[in-house]
Amino acid sequence: MTTTAASHLSDPSDPAALIETYYERGWTDGLPVVPPSRGAIEAMLAAGGLRASDLLGVIDTRNQRILADKVAINAVMAGCKPEYMPVVVAAIKGLSHPDFHYHGPATSTGGSNIVVIVNGPIAQRIGVNAKDNAFGPGFRANATIGRAVRLVMMNVLNTRPGGLDRSALGTPGKYSFCFAENEAESPWEPFHVERGFKREQSTVTIYAAEGVIQVSNGISNRPEPLLQGMADAMANLGSRNITGQGDYVVVFAGEHSALLGKSGWSKKQVKQYLYDHARRTLADLKRVERLPGPSEPGDENRWLHATESWETVLVFCAGGAVGTKSACLPAWGSPKSGRTVTTLVVEP
Question: What is the per-residue pLDDT for 1?
């Protein structure tokens, strides 16, 4: 998509016809988009404190430059309000950060979700949902911010299904996957503070996930059984993490996070327990041929963990206050193929 191509459709008199034109040109994610008027694009740029020609990111492996006007156009198309633009910009900066290694998660047959996690005051101010149905529909900020990132991937970076996007199955999260951490009800410091930012700052964390595994436990009133169930889900034999050992996002919803808080467990204790118990033996992995070769003496006592260390278990609190459900989000890749990136939200 070029600015010129979008601009000649400005101020449409027949929005329905223009929506069909966008379908014909391959500029949608399969859902209708908002035709971007010149005024809407300019409002989006102004809300981000940007000029059209500002460079927001570079994807070296694609020889692609991401300019502010392209991001603004796709944010309008996604249905964003202008006040969402600083979050979208921070997400794009994370997406193009060298440590994220865009090419892998964007093009792999694994078909990763690009998860956008918002921390800090801006989340509540613009209405990014952190509570009931945090991963689901019903909230404009969540739906459109995540969608804007995907539209930039498709329209600016040409990451389209059947082309550079070679996902074997894909996932609904590829339309949009954005939520905020429920900092107010978390028993621990917010994730962005853990990463060295100030509490009053706002950040966006970009994470490439395979999908969502829900973990249920409505009986236990102790941390260990709850965390053992989570660890087992993290280390399932089909997971890429168990052989790739990438970062691992774990999300505790209200009742489970409250239980852990009342028990006095620190976030580090939770992370350490999950690291220690999210593991499989080499014998297990060889039996299902996730690792090559026959089982050897001692393989029953040799372990692979679902992530590199306790520090790469990334713990968030989000979701409804009622319901004994939490989730783990297996990583798409390995430490060599990309890391989770957290970027500062800059507001003009």
Answer: 54
Q: Which residues contact 309 (CB under 8 A, 6 or more apart)?
A: 275
- Give residue 51's pLDDT: 98
Nearest to 210 by CA among 330, 345, 53: 330
3-state secondary structure of 219: coil
Q: Can you give the length of the chain in residues?
A: 348
How large is the angle between the packed helices 85-95 and 140-155, nearest 10 degrees? 40
Judge whether 42 and 26 are in contact, CB under 8 Å: no
Amino acid, res. 2: T
Picking from 69, 65, 128, 117, the residue whose alpha carbon sits closest to that of residue 90 is 117
Summarize pLDDT for 50-80 with one digit per residue, the tens.
Answer: 999 999 999 998 889 999 999 999 999 999 9
Task: Report the alpha-carbon distance of residue 284 to residue 105 in Å, rounded.
Answer: 27
DSSP secondary-structure letter at 217? -
Q: Between helices 85-95 and 68-78, what is the axis angle to 10°?
A: 120
- Per DSSP, the three-state class of 232 is helix
Task: Judge whether residue 338 has pLDDT over 70.
Answer: yes
Domain boundaries of the chain, sorted by first residue: 1-209+335-348, 211-331
- Asked whether the beta carbons of 146 and 113 are under 8 A apart, the reply is no
8 burial via Cβ count (<10 Å: 0-12, 13-18, 19+): exposed
What would the mean pLDDT of 112-133 be, rounded to a whole number? 97
Lowest mean pLDDT among 6-15, 69-78, 142-151, 231-240: 6-15
